[in-house]
Design brief:
By secondary structure, the chain is an alpha/beta fold. The protein has 10 helices and 14 strands.
């Protein structure tokens, strides 16, 4: 019988892509999602779907004990850094308290592997690429919640024998032919820029042009969703023999906001007007990955590293899904 995995947030942008890859790899998949930000249409038909919130302890407990799961892959979280500074309680409740409930329920069900969707926002900003031993120092509540869950997982490793992987994403981007980025209140740069090209927004705002970067705008490392998902499958396998994995997932190249907008202009052929706006609280000036550890230890290698190709894949999806999954 194929191994079964339990995926929280499997109706979201990254979670649904991971579900599709897990199914292709021969796993049976149960998706648990509240659909607060996810889309039912993004969940592959072959996956079992449970519509429930992680705060529903009884439903969660029953779902995890309904079958013999090999692992939990946890994607369900609020992800907007700016919003986290305005609504810290909402982020601590959903991202931390609900994660604790999930970890407890998983351990009680006898599940030994846990793959956690973390973030580069756990690091203190610095100019050179960040490796996994770089100083930690979140500049926003969102990053703090992810760091707290990483620390909680390590205590469950020590006290309960839970094997876990913390995968620290840099900026997930791009699309697959059948799934792309469609958040209800979009805050990510590439889809926002493409919405301008589609005529859904008048212009793109650049939040701050006085950062200590070459052109004054914030610099980020963008990684294609297909490469991100591949790393999850490698980590899931590696947890059979190792009890703790912490990996950065990025390309190791930083692009400024202005560079992303200019590349999108080339991809779309649209002028994409831009306007400078004040900085957003909690936005670091530069986040670029060193992903040498996962390349060395698990043989991971990004296959779509070029920013033009990443944006082009997103543009193809957005043109065919101009109103996301709800069209």
């Amino acid at each position: 019988m194929p191994p079964a995995v339990f995926v929280t947030g499997g109706a979201g942008y990254i979670g649904s892509a991971a579900v599709a890859a897990l199914l292709d790899a021969g796993y049976e998949v149960t998706v648990y999602d509240s659909l607060v930000t996810g889309h039912r249409a993004a969940v592959p038909a072959e996956a079992e779907f449970i519509h429930a919130d992680l705060s529903d302890a009884e439903t969660l407990r029953a779902a995890l004990q309904a079958r013999d799961y090999l692992a939990v892959l946890h994607f369900a979280a609020f992800i907007q850094a700016g919003e986290s500074m305005e609504k810290p309680g909402m982020y601590f409740r959903n991202n931390v308290a609900n994660a604790i409930g999930l970890i407890d329920a998983a351990v009680a069900a006898g599940i030994r592997r846990f793959v956690f969707s973390s973030t580069a926002a756990v690091y203190a900003p610095r100019d050179e690429p960040l490796d996994e031993d770089a100083p930690l120092g979140p500049t926003n509540v969102y990053g703090q919640t992810k760091l707290m869950v990483e620390q909680i997982l390590d205590w469950y490793r020590r006290t309960k024998g839970l094997h876990y992987a913390a995968l620290r994403y840099f900026n997930a981007a791009g699309a697959l032919p059948d799934r792309g980025e469609a958040h209800p209140h979009e805050s990510h740069l590439i889809p926002l820029v493409l919405q301008v090209a589609l005529g859904q927004r008048e212009k793109i705002y650049i939040f701050g042009d006085d950062y200590p970067t070459p052109d004054g705008t914030a610099v980020r490392d963008y990684i294609h969703i297909a490469d991100l998902v591949e790393a999850h499958l490698l980590a899931l396998d590696a947890l059979a023999k190792r009890d703790k994995l912490t990996y950065n997932l990025g390309n190791g190249v930083g692009y400024s906001v202005r560079e992303v907008i200019e590349t999108a202009r080339k991809v779309t052929g649209h002028p994409i007007p831009a306007e400078i706006a004040p900085r957003r609280p909690g936005d670091p000036s530069r986040l670029v990955a060193s992903s040498e550890r996962i390349r060395r230890e698990l043989g991971w290698q990004p296959r779509i590293p070029d920013l033009y190709d990443i944006i082009a894949s997103a543009w193809d999806w957005h043109r065919s899904h101009p109103y996301g999954y709800e069209a």
